[in-house]
Amino acid sequence: MKVQKEFVLREIAGDYVIIPTGKTVLTFNGLITVNEVGADLWKMLQSEVTFDDLLNGILETYDVDEETAREDIQEFLDTLIEGGILDKPEET
């Protein structure tokens, strides 16, 4: 999975926001504010990664148990999918 190139992450006054660019501005209303973990996930999603890649990256960086990390990552991905920012990954 990989985020669409029409969206970018910006740090504005200490907050991280995902904003549309180009023609996407006309169809996507608003922006998404994310925390530091969300920003790290976003950075990982700039290249093709799997859910396990994301999970391992978060577990290596943050002091969090695996179950909580799995739930939080899935919630983040669901938000991106609902917003049309990330294509729903194919089931394997």
UniProtKB/TrEMBL annotation:
Pfam families linked: PqqD (PF05402)
InterPro entries noted in UniProt: PQQD, PqqD_sf
Protein name as it appears in the record: PqqD family protein
Organism this protein belongs to: Candidatus Mediterraneibacter stercorigallinarum
Gene3D superfamilies membership: Coenzyme PQQ synthesis protein D (PqqD)
